[in-house]
Structures are given as C-alpha cells and as structure tokens.
Specification:
The complex is a heterodimer. By secondary structure, chain A is α/β, with parallel strands linked by helices. Chain A contains eight helices and 14 strands. The longest helix of chain A is centred in the C-terminal third of the chain and has 11 residues. In chain B, about 20% of the residues lie in helices and about 30% in strands. In chain B, the strands form two sheets. A seven-stranded mixed beta sheet of chain B has the order 6-5-4-3-2-1-14. A seven-stranded mixed beta sheet of chain B has the order 7-8-9-10-11-12-13. Classes of the chains: A alpha/beta, B alpha/beta.
Chain lengths: ~250, ~250
C-alpha cells in the first residue's frame, strides 16, 4: 500500500501546487482520497483518469472536491463506455458539484458516478480496502478515513480541529496523513483546523508510526511546520509535496 | 504586451495541464481572461497572486471559471487583504457559479473579493492600460469573445465558439489571435459551438492577423496535427498553446 500526494495546499493552490488530494494504491487498485482543484491534472501523471477504481471525499468544501467537475466532463467525453465510478462521500458533496450543472447535467452525473453516502462512524468496503470513518470537527461534516489493506493501515484526516476521535481513529496506524493548516492556533475561528504542532501531538498520542503533514496554508513556512510537529512527535515525519510517494508501513 | 497561456486544455486537463486561462501583461499591469481549473497555480508562476488588475470571464462553462473559486478564497483569506479589482462576468456566469459558494459554514460572496460587474455581450471597458471590447460568440451558452488593446498592440481571444462572423469582426487586424480549436477534421455535422483547427485558421486569415495561437484543443487530440491542419488555410505563423507559452504582441 502506498499513497501519492496529488495536492498539499489548503484552501487554494500555491504556485506549482494543487489543493487537497491523495492517490492510494494497493495491488493495482487505485483510489483518490479527495480531489481538490489541480489534483485531476496531477493524478494523470500517475494513471489515466479512467483507471481510478473509486473516489473517497472527506467533506464538501471545494478545495477537497472541485475537480469532480472536470472529471465529470472527462468521463462524459471518454471514447469508451465507462462503468459508474464509486463515489463515497458525506451528504452534500455530490450536490455541491451538481450545483454547477443543469438538470440534464445532473442526470448525467448520476450515471457517471455510483454515489454512496458516508455516515461518519460507519465502516464499509471499497474493493480490497476496509474503510472505517469518524466524524471529525470542522465547519461542515467531515469524515476522517481509516483505510486498511494488506495488513497495513492509514488514516487521512480531511479537515479537522483537535479531536479525541482522531486519536481513536488513528490508533497504531502505519501512516497518519494529517492536515496541518496553521502554525499558530486561531482561537477566533474555533476548532476547525490543526496547527502542525497539534498534528504532531495527535500522531504521538495515537501511536502512529509515520506522520505526513498536508493541507498547509499557502505562504506558510513549511520548514517550521516540520520542526513544530517534530517537537511533539518523534516518529518518522514528512511534509507533503506534490508527486511525493509515501509507503504505508514497511 | 505579452500574452501568457495559463491553461491550454479544452474541457478538462490532462497530466500537468490546466483548462482555459490567459494572462495579458502591459508594463506593470496584468489582466486575466478566464480562470479554468489549474490556472491559479499557473498564474503564480508568472506574477504575484495579487498583482492582477482585472479579471474577465468569457462564459459560464466550468472549464473557464472554476478557479475563480480558488482565487476568491485567496483574496478573502490571505493574511494580506489585497485591494479590490474589477471582475467582469459574461451573462449567466454568476447564476451558475454562485451555488458553488454556498455551504453550511457561511456563504462566500464574489462581491467581497471583487468589484463585480455582469457584462452585456457587447461591452467596452477599460482596465488600466487595457481597452477591452467584447462581442457575442456562437456557443451553447452566452459567450463573449474578447479583444484587448494596449500600447497600440491588439490581441483577441475567441473563448469558445463555432464559426461566426462576429469573431472575424472582433479580431479584425489584430496582431495575435488566440483561437479555440477544440476539434479536428472537417467539422461537418457537428453543432456550431466549437471550431476545428482548420476553421480557426480560416477565421484568422479573414481577420488579417499575423499570428494565431490554437488553444482549447481536446486533451485526446494530437496537437501537432491541429497545427498542420491550421497551416493549410493560414499563411501566417501558427502556434499551439501550452501552459506557460509566452507571446510578445507588437503593433
């Protein structure tokens, strides 16, 4: 099992970057975890878009799902008929993108995607992957994802503030891919994102082997994100970069 | 005047690509025409994110407008609050785009990041040194072609269109025509909403322009073939757009 970083910027992409997205691969099975602006373009550096086996989206914010729009047209115009692509997402994600389309367009989207609603807390299977989910605190319902396959486990936070649920979800994972939007806490905005240090603290408390920081606010000093997280977490630590491949477990 | 291609791909991006967007530069002034997916990341390869003096969106299709979301986010949530700049939208863009900005956590409004105007299909506006003229194109939704004059040089951008005399008139005598060429071959039997490379070149010939850049080519097409098809009906210079391509435009 391995993950490829498709995008590491929070909110909007920095030069040469994309917003949130990961590609998870396991024995020829390929799943995108979030598909923010710019990630469809990066995805195709690794495989043709029609070879994606499933999509998992954590929440409806557009920096995590907007490239569903170009993926829709890419699938509409594909020369071969494509099977509906399984799309697992909390309520609201499909409708958010469908809002771009007129009525026939929405009907077309329903045929292109096999939509499954994630009720955070539930478990489900996607191909060879076992997925468990937890509601993590954010401005809208956000499903933290724990994915197990081949005896390995990874957790991807989506967007979250500090949360005991995250510690529970990420217990003893091989890889925790955690958002680290900020360097300083923003008390004024409530518990909607983590600082890099908080991401490190959660990883340490969960006993994660490796921590990958992503969803970094544009313009922040990524070296400081790394050093702040390292003060709280003494496992293997990486900062996401577009195109980077990280193995899950040894 | 310089024209920089921010996104060259038609309808959806292939690996490393972005959909429609152009940056027009004159001295210290920068104008953005369309903001397709991936263009905000590309923009920052050339200018500071907030060193833009105006944005014009040609029509409501997502491959020309979705990165307006990323740009709005940047303008609203950067530590530095940038000054307001004009944003001109073709008819129907606002209706299609605004629902994207609505969620449970509070709506974002384009008006908070831009001086927003909805254009008529025929509009004359001036942004800094740029004199901008638009005309209606032939497409499946209301779409404007955009002519930009600065420093005595003229560029024209077709946006998405089928064959139309409106484009010939709008682009008349321009120094550079950036023309969509979504399709190849003869185009017969297809709806008049896009151009083939050959049709784009025929229009370029009728405008009397010296150079044409073909853009919005569907990702699965061989771009070299588009160039060759265009060269059969246009005697001037034909280029194929790629992200980052920079063209000097001189009178």
């Amino acid at each position: 099992v391995e993950v490829v970083v498709l995008g590491s910027s929070a909110a909007w992409p920095e030069a040469g970057r994309a917003a949130a997205g990961l590609l998870l691969r396991h024995e020829g099975f390929s799943v995108a975890l979030d598909l923010g602006p710019g990630t469809l373009s990066n995805l195709q550096r690794h495989l043709p878009h029609e070879r994606l086996d499933a999509l998992l989206i954590t929440h409806e914010h557009l920096d995590h799902c907007l490239d569903l729009a170009p993926l829709t047209v890419a699938r509409v115009f594909h020369p071969d008929p494509l099977k509906p692509l399984p799309l697992h997402a909390p309520d609201g994600v499909f409708d958010r993108i469908a809002a771009l389309e007129d009525e026939p367009g929405v009907a077309e989207m329903r045929e292109l995607f096999d939509v499954h609603t994630i009720e955070p807390g539930q478990d489900f299977e996607v191909g060879p992957l076992h997925v468990s989910t937890r509601l993590l605190p954010h401005m809208v319902p956000n499903a933290g994802l724990r994915i197990e396959a081949g005896g390995k486990a990874l957790v991807y936070t989506g967007d979250t503030g500090p949360s005991e649920e995250l510690v529970t979800l990420a217990r003893e994972v091989d890889l925790l891919v955690s958002e680290a939007s900020w360097l300083e806490p923003r008390q004024d905005l409530g518990p909607i994102h983590l600082t890099a240090r908080q991401a490190g603290e959660h990883a340490a408390r969960a006993g994660a082997a490796t921590l990958l920081l992503t969803h970094l606010w544009p313009g922040l000093d990524r070296d400081r994100s790394r050093s702040d997280a390292a003060e709280a977490f003494d496992g293997t630590l990486q900062v996401a970069d577009e195109g980077m491949t990280v193995p899950v477990g040894g | 005047v310089e024209v920089v291609v921010l996104g060259a791909h038609g309808t959806w991006p292939s690996a490393g690509g972005a959909t429609s967007g152009l940056l027009v530069r004159s001295g210290y002034h920068n104008l953005v025409l369309d903001l397709g997916t991936g263009t905000v990341a590309q923009l920052q390869e050339h200018v500071d994110l907030f060193d833009v003096h105006g944005v014009v969106i040609s029509h409501s299709h997502p491959d020309h407008v979705t990165d307006l979301y990323a740009y709005l986010m940047a303008r609203l949530f950067s530590p530095e609050r940038p000054p307001m700049i004009p944003l001109y939208l073709a008819p129907k863009v606002l209706e299609r785009f605004a629902p994207l900005l609505t969620d449970d956590s509070g709506d974002m409004k384009l008006e908070e990041g831009f001086d927003l105007s909805v254009m008529e299909l025929r509009t004359d506006v001036t942004i800094g040194p740029f004199r901008i003229t638009t005309a209606p194109m032939s497409h499946s939704v209301p779409t404007v072609g955009i002519r930009v004059e600065a420093e005595g040089a003229v560029m024209c951008y077709s946006a998405d269109t089928g064959p139309t005399d409106e484009l010939v008139t709008l682009a008349s005598g321009c120094d550079l025509l950036v023309a969509e060429a979504s399709w190849q071959d003869d185009g017969i039997g297809r709806p008049p909403i896009h151009l083939t490379a050959k049709e784009a070149a025929e229009i370029a010939t009728r405008t009397g322009c010296r150079r044409v850049v073909l853009t919005h080519i569907r990702p699965y097409l061989d771009k070299e073939r588009s160039r060759e098809e265009a060269a059969t009906t246009f005697a001037g210079e034909v280029e194929v757009a790629t992200e980052g391509l920079t063209e000097e435009v001189r009178p």
